[in-house]
Amino acid sequence: MKVFRFSHLVSVAALAGATAFAGVVHADSDGYGARAALRTGDIVPISRVLDTVTRQYNGDVIEIKLDRDHGRWTYEVEIVLPNGAIAELEYDARDLKPLSAWGHELEKARKPAG
């Protein structure tokens, strides 16, 4: 499993212009790193992840992890919900399709679709 961490309070990066974060990628040991995946469209930029999460949930993003396991790229996102709980969201890194979500009262933090 290859893991790439984008922490250091990603929400601060969002306030400072998340597009600057979109280019922060690292190559892994097998030569097919996040930079290549971004170039080929296998993953979306982190700015799109932040946009998606903030459109879907109330709360503050505190960590985004790009993971490649068994050939599949995923984004794992941690957010602090308004109730103070930490929730974890997992998205397919190619199209940001939600894969899983868990956290205490997470559904109460979900924003209405629209």
Structure notes:
- This protein is an alpha+beta fold.
- It has a single domain (2-109), classed as Nuclear Transport Factor 2, Chain: A.
- The chain is 25% helix and 32% strand.
- The protein is built from four helices and five strands.
- It has helices at residues 10-15, 34-40, 46-56, 106-109; strands at 2-6, 60-69, 72-80, 86-92, 98-102.
- A five-stranded antiparallel sheet has the order 1-2-3-4-5, covered by helices on one side.
- It is elongated, with a radius of gyration of 14 Å.
- Residues 7-31 have low confidence and may be disordered.
Shape call? elongated
List the strand order in the largest sheet.
1-2-3-4-5
Helix content: 10-25%
Helix vs. strand class: alpha+beta
Number of helices: 4
Q: Mean pLDDT, nearest integer?
A: 81
Work out the strand percent: 25-35%
Secondary structure tally: strands:
5
Q: Please provide the ordered H/E string of secondary-structure elements.
A: EHHHEEEEH
User: Please, how many domains?
Assistant: 1
Could you name the CATH topology?
Answer: Nuclear Transport Factor 2, Chain: A
CA-atom Rg in angstroms: 14 Å
pLDDT < 50 stretches: 7-31
What oligomeric state do the depicted chains represent? single chain
Distance between the termini: 36 Å
What kind of sheet is the major sheet?
Answer: 5 strands, antiparallel
The CATH architecture? Roll
CATH class: Alpha Beta
Describe the structure using short key phrases.
114 residues, alpha+beta, Nuclear Transport Factor 2, Chain: A, 5-stranded antiparallel sheet, 5 strands, 25% helix
